[in-house]
Specification:
- By secondary structure, the protein is mainly α.
- The protein contains 15 helices and no strands.
């Protein structure tokens, strides 16, 4: 073996060791963070919901006729961020670490294709996350920067809130198995079908080839800590301002966006499908919201529309990923969520 070949061999072996170490480090951080923020608290909440048939009070205010106000904005933002801040911090942390710890070549090989296989694997990878749409958004944005396809990234982003196993368990205990089955049927369609179809809008707008990214990284002698801090800083600048502002705006109008007095019918389903797609809630908050709205006279159809649209996406989460996905892809996702919400509302009005 020549000296140049020997140096290349040792360099490759050192790179492989470093890559394995980084992947293990990412998994340790992700597992520890999810255990603290999601898995253990949800285990306790599942036990509580099984006996009390409740997971708490609705985050929306009780006065659905109150006018928009700064007080309503502040109240909702405070309640919302009190519920999600730990998961939001974890989402931003993992979204930044995805860009510096996970190898771009591997991510591209597994999740970089526009074929259904990558979309399917992206959706499956979302199941342990159990995050709301806004907390999953930074991770989806980080995946896009590491050569993950539009379809796989969207499946991960949408699957986190829509196919959340903990939420499905809560829903069964608090609402009924019919709500759970409806959520599963349309949630699978939304997570895998809509995400896969969205790939068509990514032509010519994909991230650089993985080989180019790997080559640039191998030449980059910047210490790991500085590369991560740069990734984290850009993530915060791109995500947090739009997140905060849009939550405040939606909070200001929280009492007028949900006209419960419409009762049922197609108009109510349409209105609640659109509003549910735009509005932002914490994980599983749709359950007590639906409970309270149906107690006020909301029909089964609009309630079923909220069941799918409230958790799926929101105006804040779409703003958070706006730089990571083609605009047409996000518009397609928004329209598809509304349409699926209407379809779920029509079916729900018949079977719930």
């Amino acid at each position: 073996m020549t000296s140049s070949n020997s140096e290349h061999f040792h360099s490759a072996r050192s790179f492989n060791r470093k890559t394995v170490f980084f992947v293990i480090l990412f998994l340790i951080i992700a597992i520890a963070g999810l255990s603290y923020v999601k898995w253990w608290p949800y285990y306790e909440k599942a036990l509580k919901s099984a006996t009390s048939h409740s997971i708490g009070s609705p985050i929306l205010g009780p006065d659905t006729a109150a006018a928009p106000s700064l007080g309503a904005a502040a109240d909702y933002a405070l309640a919302y961020f009190k519920s999600v801040w730990k998961a939001a911090v974890l989402g931003i942390l993992l979204g930044s670490l995805v860009q510096v710890l996970l190898p771009a070549q591997w991510l591209y090989k597994v999740l970089g294709s526009s074929r259904f296989k990558s979309t399917f694997l992206g959706g499956v990878a979302s199941l342990p996350g159990m995050m709301c749409t806004c907390c999953a958004a930074p991770i989806a944005a980080g995946l896009r920067k590491r050569n993950v396809s539009v379809g796989a990234s969207l499946a991960f982003w949408i699957g986190n809130p829509v196919l959340n196993p903990a939420t499905l368990i809560f829903m069964t205990f608090v609402l009924s198995w019919k709500f759970t089955l409806l959520r599963l049927m349309f949630g699978i369609l939304m997570t895998f079908g809509v995400s896969y179809l969205a790939n068509r809008f990514a032509r010519g707008k994909e991230v650089p080839a993985p080989a180019a990214i790997e080559a640039a990284e191998s030449k980059d002698e910047t210490p790991f800590a500085l590369r991560w801090l740069k990734s984290l800083g850009l993530m915060i600048l791109n995500v947090v301002p739009a997140y905060l502002l849009s939550v405040l705006v939606l909070g200001a109008f929280q009492n007028t966006l949900f006209p419960v007095e419409l009762g049922g019918g197609f108009l109510a389903i349409l209105v609640f499908a659109i509003v549910g797609t735009l509005f932002v809630i914490p994980t599983a908050a749709e359950i007590p919201i639906i409970q309270s709205f149906t107690a006020l006279g909301l029909g089964a159809g609009p309630a079923a529309a909220l069941l799918l649209t409230l958790p799926a996406v929101s105006l804040p989460s779409m703003l958070m990923v706006a730089r990571s996905f083609p605009r047409k892809a996000l518009l397609f996702v928004f329209a598809s969520v509304v349409v699926i919400g209407i379809a779920a509302g029509i079916v729900g009005g018949l079977v719930l």
